[in-house]
Each structure stands twice: as C-alpha cells, then as structure tokens.
Amino acid sequence: MGSKNKLKRFRENEQFKNVVQPNRDEITNRKFALKGKWSSDFFKNDNPIVLELGCGKGEYTVALGQKYPNKNFIGVDIKGARFWRGAKTGIEENIKNIGFLRTQIELIDQLFDENEVSEIWITFPDPQIKYKRTKHRLTNIDFLEKYRAILKPSGVMHLKTDSEFMHGYTLGLLHALGYEVEYAHHDVYSNTYSPEEVISIQTFYEKQYLEKNKAITYIRFKFT
Predict the structure, then answer these.
(1) pLDDT at residue 2 greater than cutoff 70
(2) Confidence (pLDDT) at 6
(3) What's the burial of 148, exposed, middle or buried (CB within 10 Å: 0-12/13-18/19+)?
(4) Catalytic positions
(5) pLDDT by residue (tens digit) across 76-111?
C-alpha cells in the first residue's frame, strides 16, 4: 500500500464515528474516558461487548456484528490503515454495533474495565515461533492475565488460527493452568460439530489458507 493511500485512510479514520484512536499518554495516565463506559458512551446500550484482537481488515468484527445484532463488537489493531476497510464498511452499511480501536494489545487492560467484556476473539495472530518473540505471543501467560482482568467471570475466549504450533502451545498452556477448554479441534472444516460462527465466517487470508489445503484450528475456553 502506497504512503498516499495510507495517509488518506488515516485521515478518513479520524472522521469515522466508529473509530477510537487514543494516544499513549491518554492510556497510560488513566485519561482514557471510555474505560468502563463503552456501553453507555460509545454503543449507548447494555448489550454484551465482544473484542476481536489483531483484527486486521476487520472482516470478523464486521461479520459478527451483522450476525449478532444484540451484541457489540470492537476490532482492535495497531494498524489503522488495515482496519479502515472494516470501519468504512460499518459506516457505509450503517452497522451500529461495531467499532474499531487503534492500540497495542498489551495495553488492553488499561482500555477496558474489570468485567466490561463478555467475549474475546483472537483470529489468525502471528504465532511468534522464535523463543525471543514469546513475549509477543498473544496467548502467553501475561496476555492471558490481561484478558482475564477485563472479562466477566463467565467470559469466553476464542482462538482461531492456521498455526498448529499456536494451537498446541495454547492448548498445553491452558491445561497446565487448569482453565476450562470447552472445545478444541485441529481442523474445524473437517469436523461436523464445529461451531457455526467459526466456519461460517472466513477472512481473506483464511480463504487463501483453505485453497492451499491448510488446516484451520480453533479453541474455545474460559478462565475458570
């Protein structure tokens, strides 16, 4: 993507009412006004809040929003030029139950209050296979603690990935920590009983993986 295109998208994001872009000072100095008030001030309803972390183009956020009008969805990513597409679709199609938040995921517990979130989706994250990159892996212990801090006690986590490594690593860690794995499968499209929202929504890259006969894995779990 050219720099002109990126700048155009950044400018449009600033105008979109469904995009929130706090600066680091707002977040780290507890000046972020929406923390604890996403329902009342942003969505203006009491419906459950669902996050998609590392949302990319926002395809899953948009599709889930259309599929579940009684829930609110927020796509989270640091790359605003990517989720511009999802935000623009939301504006064009008047999808009022979706929003986008530009931030680093390691700050997520400073942007949402305790018990403010009902579900979290992590879709096709970078598995960060090299050992020195473990701290950036979105299902390591530190990240799991951040998610647990903002989820309701009955909150649900979803991990959908094309990485067998990420699937196995996360599953092993969850079992070691004693968390409740409700469902896990290493190839959801080969399983008759895969959850409908997992196989009925496909991202651009997921379709490419499937064309190459790459298995898509999925885990649903709770912090209990």
Answers:
(1) no
(2) 84
(3) middle
(4) 126
(5) 999 999 999 999 999 999 999 999 999 999 999 999
Q: Is 54 helix (H, G, I), strand (E, B) or coil?
A: coil
What is the radius of gyration, based on Cα positions, of the chain?
17
Exposed, middle or buried, 5 (CB in 10 Å: 0-12/13-18/19+)?
A: exposed
CA 125, CA 155: separation in Å to the nearest integer?
A: 20
Q: Which of 6-20, 29-43, 171-185 has the lowest mean pLDDT?
A: 6-20
Instruction: Report which residue type is found at 43.
Output: F
φ and ψ at residue 216, rounded to 5 degrees: -105, 125
53: which residues sit within 8 A by CB, 6+ positions away? Answer: 76, 105, 108, 120, 121, 122, 125, 138
Q: List, as one string, the DSSP characters of 71-131.
A: SEEEEEES-HHHHHHHHHHHHHTT-TTEEEEES-GGGGGGTS-TT-EEEEEEES-----SG
Per the listing, tokens 């001030």 go with 41
Q: Which domains does the chain have, with CATH numbers?
A: 1-113 (3.40.50.150), 116-224 (3.40.50.150)
**122: number of Cβ within 10 Å:** 23
Query: Residue 217: exposed, middle, or buried by beta-carbon count in 10 A (0-12, 13-18, 19+)?
Result: buried
Q: Beta strand 98-102 with 151-161: parallel, antiparallel or unpaired?
A: unpaired
Contacts of 3 (CB under 8 A, 6+ apart): none
Distance CA 38, CA 113 (A): 9
The upper half-sphere exposure of residue 99, i.e. CA atoms within 13 Å in the direction of its Cβ, equals: 23
Q: What is the pLDDT of residue 1?
A: 60
